[in-house]
Design goal:
Layout: H1 3-11, H2 18-29, H3 35-48, H4 52-64, E1 79-83, H5 92-101, E2 106-110, H6 120-124, H7 136-146, E3 148-152, H8 159-171, H9 177-190, E4 195-202, H10 211-227, E5 231-238, E6 246-248, H11 250-260, H12 266-282, H13 289-301, H14 304-315, E7 332-337, E8 342-347, H15 349-361, E9 375-378, E10 385-386, E11 391-397, H16 400-410, E12 414-417, E13 427-428
Parallel strand pairs: 1-4, 2-3, 4-5
Antiparallel strand pairs: 5-13, 6-9, 7-11, 8-10, 8-12, 9-11
Helix pairs in contact: 1-3, 2-4, 3-8, 4-9, 4-10, 5-12, 5-14, 8-9, 9-10, 12-13, 15-16
Length: 429
């Protein structure tokens, strides 16, 4: 086959057949397709979309490009969660150890940041010596011993998605529904899951700006889940403002730990518990949301969830001392100050995300180095009263010039009104 003919066919809105899709993915994995050809196909998919049949074949081809786990011999429910991305979303570090401490097997293959959204792996790698690139043997062994592993894609698991993921980030094709669905579900299928809960973010700080867009994504994910026998639940959560009090890299790890100690922000706990309840009910560990919440709260209060997180970090050779102290200290910090009185009515969360990229929490280009010390603290959230001179944001990191650039962006991201404002509903029913 000729790559350009497949590209032209999709460009012109003609459906690709099974043979064409599988040939393209196999050629990609075997380095017979260059980046420019892949970019062209991704852009064609972005504009033309894919039918259900094309999507299922794409997912199948991506899974078949590598190995697939099978943990059924462990005689436990195997489950994972996935978020569509947002600002300050560190729920994986909270939910995975909670579920694992309750007997759920959690084989979590995570990704790095896309566009302005933070990546689970990027945040984990802020812990010195921690290994996220594991062999299949090491991943499987950790699941058997610890019950949970949070790792990046290896060359053996969905290698096609590894390349697609990277090129999507660089070509403006991240928001494509079929590309989002195939990327998410191929990894989850390869994990050998029984169940999955999807946290679909809705609002100006995520790729799905409206509930209608979110529902379209949910439909695609559930279709794939049904086709591959994965019990898939959907939760819609608000991303009209950052989640939690911090966004960045290492600062999000520290905030997740505070949640596992029972001291975390209410919004983080609320979303984590709603997602966890879905898995616990799927697995028949809990009969309803109330009993599920009690189980999760108990595992925080008795210290088992935090202990499990420490087990995960230790198993992946991370320096545990960095979890119990603030050793990653930024060189600089500056603040964004309000110039008037009022109530915080809205935030431009996507711009906040791009300000995080600016200070080194994400990548503008492939070769960009991350600043693990960098981040933003959100002193005020929507609905809060603000006085003139109050701090809205605290920005910190190692590059003062970048911090000042971010401050310019952040000065345009918050809006005040004279009337009181209600806090947005976090879980969208």
């Amino acid at each position: 086959m000729i790559p350009s003919e497949i590209i032209e066919k999709k460009r012109d809105g003609i459906n690709l057949n099974k043979k064409e899709i599988k040939w393209f993915i196999n050629s990609l994995v075997n380095n017979k397709i260059d980046t420019s050809q892949l970019s062209a196909l991704l852009m064609s998919i972005y504009f033309q979309g894919m039918t259900d049949e094309e999507l299922f074949v794409l997912v199948e081809a991506m899974v078949e490009s590598g190995e697939k786990f099978d943990f059924n011999y462990l005689d436990s429910y195997i489950a994972d969660k996935h978020s569509t991305g947002g600002v300050g979303d560190k729920i994986s570090f909270i939910l995975a150890p909670i579920l694992s401490s309750l007997g759920i097997i959690v084989p979590m293959i995570a990704g790095r940041g896309l566009a302005y959204t933070g990546g689970t792996i990027d945040k984990l790698k802020s812990i010195p010596k921690l290994q996220t690139s594991l062999s299949l043997k090491s991943f499987k062994k950790q699941i058997e011993v610890v019950g949970c592993c949070i790792a990046s894609q290896s060359s053996q698991i969905c290698p096609a998605d590894n390349t697609l993921y990277r090129v999507r980030d660089l070509t403006g094709t991240v928001p494509s529904l079929p590309l989002i669905c195939s990327s998410i579900m191929s990894k989850k299928i390869a994990e050998g899951l029984n169940g999955l809960v999807m946290d679909i973010k809705v609002g100006n700080g995520t790729f799905m700006k409206t509930i209608e867009e979110a529902e379209q994504l949910a439909l695609g994910l559930k279709k794939i889940g049904d086709a591959f026998n994965i019990n898939t639940d959907i939760v819609y959560s608000d991303m009209s403002q950052p989640l939690g009090k911090f966004a960045g890299l290492h600062c999000e790890i520290l905030e997740a730990i505070e949640c596992l100690k029972g001291n975390g922000p209410k919004d983080l706990i609320e979303v984590s518990f709603r997602l966890g309840a879905k898995i616990l009910m799927q697995s028949n560990t809990a009969k309803d949301i109330r009993s599920a919440n009690k189980l999760m709260l108990d595992t925080i209060n008795n210290g088992k969830a935090l202990k499990k997180f420490e087990e995960i970090i230790n198993a992946q050779n991370g320096d545990i001392s960095y979890l119990n102290s603030k050793k990653i200290i930024p060189k600089h910090e500056i603040t964004v100050i309000s110039n008037r009185h009022g109530f915080l009515s809205s935030l431009e969360t996507e711009k906040i995300g791009w300000s995080l990229v600016e200070i080194g929490c994400g990548r503008k280009v492939e070769k960009d180095k991350l600043d693990y010390s960098a981040g933003i603290e959100f002193i005020k959230k929507i609905g809060d009263k603000v006085n003139k001179g109050d701090t809205i944001y605290r920005i910190f990191g190692n590059n003062l010039k970048k911090l000042n650039n971010a401050k310019i962006i952040l000065n345009e991201t918050y809006f005040l009104t004279d009337a009181e404002v209600l806090q947005p509903k976090l879980i969208i029913d």
